[in-house]
Write a structure and sequence with these properties.
The complex is a heterodimer of chains A (154) and B (735). By secondary structure, chain A is α+β, with helices and mostly antiparallel strands. Chain A folds into 2 domains: 73 residues, Beta-grasp domain (Ubiquitin-like (UB roll)), CATH 3.10.20; 64 residues, [2Fe-2S]-binding domain (DNA polymerase, domain 1, Orthogonal Bundle), CATH 1.10.150.120. In chain A, a hairpin with a 2-residue loop joins strand 1 and strand 2. In chain A, helix 4 crosses helix 5. The longest helix of chain A is centred in the C-terminal third of the chain and has 14 residues. In chain B, a hairpin with a 5-residue loop joins strand 22 and strand 23. In chain B, 31% of the residues lie in helices and 21% in strands. Chain B is globular and about 80 Å long. Chain B is α+β, with helices and mostly antiparallel strands and 735 residues long. Chain B has 3 domains: 188 residues, Aldehyde oxidase/xanthine dehydrogenase, molybdopterin binding domain (Aldehyde Oxidoreductase, domain 4), CATH 3.30.365; 146 residues, 2-Layer Sandwich (Aldehyde Oxidoreductase, domain 4), CATH 3.30.365.10; 328 residues, 2-Layer Sandwich (Aldehyde Oxidoreductase, domain 4), CATH 3.30.365.10. Classes of the chains: A alpha+beta (154), B alpha+beta (735). Chains A and B meet through helix 1, helix 2, helix 3, helix 4 and helix 5 of A and helix 8 and helix 20 of B.
Chain lengths: 154, 735
């Protein structure tokens, strides 16, 4: 099967019903996308499919064929230029353990692309379905809010 | 890499969590035990408990040998190996700050690496108990100062210049004639072995340290926003396969037999390993391994099908076997007067790190390498070796980043991976499902607390008693003989002691054996005990119509710990505008003195008509001694506030029909941003010269602060965690 991931076309030895998360992590060795619950609750596995935040742990490959998949590994431009949301997460010193952070950042980027000037309620609603067990919520909020209002994120 | 580190250091030490070594490691506490043997076990247990409570246990010591901590490469670059694992608490950054300060180098001149069982300082305590920075602080400084002294003296030998005239810089020493001898040259031209002096070099005065006390960006964060950080669940080796292990369906289930035919025929299955009760599958992909495990047809003896109510009844104070862990005066005499009493209960709760248990093992005939998401790599080495029949020194445990630990990452999954790798003859990765994480690990035990107190007309407590019944926390991991010496589980008693200076005080603990696996959870007994003690302090205050803050201040002594505790109570009260009442909301206060760390928290809450509590803000003030990284300490206070709110409002596991009645997060939801409070974190400086614990103490007051705020708002006293809407609605308002 062919998949479009982070702007490249890759061929994977997989079946249409295989789950995107495991293809990314174990076949393509892109382990930045994390497993948290496997049922789409916690958001650790969030990636973009045609720009939309999508839970990779419940996404079969058949549903993403021909679509643009973007993961945390494809967010920065090259090695040095981080995405503004990544920069904001460093600036606010957001992560503790960091396991949920790829999902938090991918969720935030997709949200801010669609709504570059959100208010507080909108940020909480958009980020309110991603678990962070370390409890970095105030810093996640601050990082997202600091990017909001600065125009398009990508 | 060739380095200055001797190939076979004379001081090579290996540690295993054997009872003998643990007792050796007890240090001062062991002395108390010896006293106890001489004067009677109850007295010895009491002294032991007092010593541990005051933060003076001195349980484990870290080496201060420079070559245990540091490596100076052929290129002259310094590497610091840290035995404590990074699970988000910022320990690698904090210890680097301390080391860089003492070395006198610039930030970028030192690289930090995770220690393993064969690299870096070996310490048997693991990454636990909020002790990582406090226990590393002096040893790493001594190691750093001694290392620079050794390099300076060698530079003096090689250059013929007086040692004192050599100016330290990032790449070496500058002599008076401004010629530089580089570290690379010093290492390359050293004749013979490096000799480590018996006495460590003198340390810099605390006041002269430049990085200690400054907010420092965390060294692990850049790789955590790009997906590059490698955790146990991410570990990879060429040719690796994936494993999964059969789990018993009930608490007491015993395997009768298993039919593996269907599982063997599943796609991708490479091996099925059966050893007594242990049955696991190895497959080409993780979903295949999980599916094949689920296809194992096992027959079980179910055992007794326990119900939650039966376990609650077991975990009830009273009867024989209570162990006294604090005793001042005589409470029984005081209770002859009218006493106030109240019972509190806390639930089974699950640590739930978002990274489930995970390890990759590569076992060969001659040894094993294991990459594990674990807080205890040192003790895990012996456990893995025992499980697969190898000598411990042939097993290397390599800790990865941890996607959360919270007391749960004890590495049992590494033993599973090692057994499967040994059986299948290939590297095997085992990663648990969320269902396994919620049902196959060990839980925070049920606890029951009975508080009794007498207050006189001037608002002084004359007698205070705390009775605790709890399942095991640390006793789950202790040999029985050692538990017998301690009497009371030191995990259960964490936070149980009464700091208020009533002339009559007693704390008694009953150990209750449960059919549920229980163990460590963030802060051990801190949250349950302080929920009971500080809710009851609020009840006592209201019983004599005193302000809860004033009532606490009224009942504190003027020793140093009490003064520091008083200061955080006042700091939190000032910041939260204690005494004001926002419309439709109320404030509640609670505090803790955990070892040498003092924390006070104030919750600002409202309750809707459905009984749903909303925590708007948590204001916490903490005195944790010398602060290394203030931003890191505040992050821990913020995280603990969220943990506390999540535990207080939501988290509960119950047993039904012999099973832990959980499946995935739909049955054990965690706090989200939608319910998250704002957090104001205040660090209080009392001029301490050493750092104390930070990672757990701030969780302790949160549930009591919320419950006390709900009482202030509604007159309803919440005595059972979590405070679900049903319990809030069912609670009766005080008359």
């Amino acid at each position: 099967m062919e998949l479009k991931i982070n702007g490249k076309t890759v061929t994977v030895n997989a079946k249409p019903e295989d789950i995107l998360l495991w293809t990314l992590r174990d076949d393509l060795e892109m382990t930045g996308t994390k497993f948290g619950c496997g049922v789409g609750i916690c958001g650790s596995c969030t990636v973009h499919v045609d720009g939309e935040a999508t839970r990779a742990c419940i996404t079969p490959l058949a549903s993403v064929q021909g679509k643009e998949i973007r993961t945390i590994e494809g967010l920065a431009e090259g090695e040095s230029k981080l995405h503004p949301v990544q920069e904001a997460f460093i600036q606010e010193q957001v992560p503790q353990c960091g396991w949920c952070m790829s999902g938090q950042i991918m969720t935030a980027v997709s949200f801010l692309d669609a709504n570059p000037n959100p208010n507080e309620e909108e940020i909480v609603a958009a980020m309110g379905n991603n678990y962070c067990r370390c409890g970095c919520y105030t810093r996640i909020y601050d990082a997202v809010a600091s990017v909001a209002g600065q125009g398009e994120t990508t | 890499m060739k380095s200055a580190k001797p190939e076979t250091p004379a001081t090579k030490r290996r540690w295993r969590m054997s009872r003998r070594k643990f007792l050796i490691g007890l240090g001062a506490t062991g002395g108390a035990l010896a006293i106890g043997v001489a004067v009677g076990l109850p007295y010895g247990r009491l002294k032991l408990a007092e010593m541990i409570d005051s933060g003076g246990g001195g349980f484990f010591s870290m080496p201060n040998d420079p070559w245990a901590w540091f490596e100076v490469g052929q290129d002259g670059r310094f590497t610091l190996y840290i035995s404590k694992v990074e699970m988000g608490q910022g320990v690698h950054t904090a210890i680097k700050q301390v080391a860089v300060d003492e070395l006198g180098l610039s930030w970028d001149a030192l690289t930090v690496r995770q220690g393993t069982t064969s690299k870096g300082p070996q310490d048997s305590s693991g990454t636990s108990g909020s002790t990582s920075v406090s226990s590393s602080f002096t040893p790493v400084r001594e190691a750093a100062a001694t290392l620079i002294q050794m390099l300076r003296q060698e530079a003096a030998v090689q250059t013929g210049q007086p040692a004192a005239s050599l100016q330290l810089q990032d790449d070496g020493f500058a002599a008076d004639d401004s010629a530089v001898i580089t570290f690379a040259d010093i290492i390359a031209n050293k004749a013979g072995e490096w000799e480590v002096p018996e006495e460590p070099a003198p340390l810099k005065p605390i006041g002269s340290l430049k990085l200690v006390g400054q907010p420092q960006p965390r060294v692990d964060i850049p790789d955590k926003v790009t997906g590059k950080a490698v955790y146990g669940f991410d570990a990879k080796l060429p040719g690796m396969k994936f494993g999964a292990v059969l789990r018993p369906p009930t608490l007491e289930a015993r395997l009768k037999k298993v039919n593996t035919a269907a599982a063997s025929a599943m796609p991708g299955v490479a091996a099925i390993i059966e050893e007594d009760d242990f049955v696991g599958v190895v497959a080409d992909s993780r979903p295949q391994a999980w599916a094949a495990r689920d296809a194992l047809e096992a027959e079980w003896r179910e055992g007794k099908l326990w119900q939650q109510a039966e376990l609650e009844e077991i975990v009830t104070v009273g009867g024989r076997g209570g162990v006294v862990v604090q005793k001042v005066g005589d409470v029984d005499e005081a209770f002859a007067e009218t006493a106030v009493t109240a019972d509190y209960r806390t639930p089974f709760a699950v640590q739930s790190p978002l990274e489930a248990q995970a390890a990759l093992a590569d076992v060969t005939a001659s040894g094993a390498r294991v990459w594990a998401s674990t807080q205890v790599h040192t003790s895990l080495q012996g456990q893995v070796a025992d499980a697969i029949g190898l000598e411990a020194e042939t097993v290397e445990i390599i800790p990865t980043y941890l996607g959360g630990g919270f007391g749960r990452k004890l590495g049992d999954v590494a033993i599973e991976a090692a057994r499967l790798s040994q059986g299948a003859g290939v590297p095997v990765h085992v990663g648990w499902t969320r269902r396994e994480e919620l049902t196959a690990g060990f839980l925070q035990p049920l606890s029951h607390h009975r508080m009794t107190g007498v207050v006189d007309g001037s608002g002084r407590i004359t007698a205070l008693e705390h009775q605790i019944a709890s399942g095991d926390i640390l006793f789950s991991f202790f040999p029985d003989a050692m538990a017998a010496v301690f009497g009371a589980d030191i995990g259960v008693t964490r936070g149980a002691h009464l700091i208020y200076n009533a002339p009559n005080r007693r704390v008694t603990v009953w150990r209750r054996k449960l059919p549920v696996k229980t163990g460590s959870w963030r802060g051990l007994g801190l949250l349950p005990n302080i929920f009971a003690i500080e809710s009851f302090m609020d009840e006592l205050a209201h019983s004599v119509r005193m302000d809860p803050l004033q009532f606490r201040l009224n009942n504190l002594g003027d020793d140093e710990r009490s003064r520091r505790y008083t200061a955080v109570l006042q700091a939190a009260a000032e910041a939260a505008k204690w005494g004001t009442t926002p419309t439709g909301r109320a404030l509640g206060l609670a505090g803790i003195m955990d070892g040498n760390t003092a924390v006070a928290s104030i919750a600002d809450v409202s309750v809707d008509e459905n009984g749903k509590i909303r925590v708007h803000k948590i204001t916490s003030a903490m005195d944790c001694g010398l602060v290394i990284n203030p931003d890191g300490a505040k992050a821990q206070m913020e995280g603990n506030a969220m943990w506390g709110v999540s535990a207080a409002l939501k988290e509960e596991a119950t047993v039904q029909d012999g099973r832990i009645a959980l499946n995935n997060f739909e049955t054990y939801p965690l706090l989200t941003m939608k319910e998250a409070p704002k957090v104001e974190a205040i660090l209080v400086d009392s001029g301490q010269m050493e750092p104390y614990g930070v990672g757990e103490p701030p969780i302790a007051p949160i549930a009591a602060a919320i419950g006390n705020a709900v009482f202030a708002l509604t007159g309803k006293r919440l005595r059972q965690m979590p405070f679900t809407p049903e319990r809030v609605l069912a609670a009766e308002a005080a008359s």
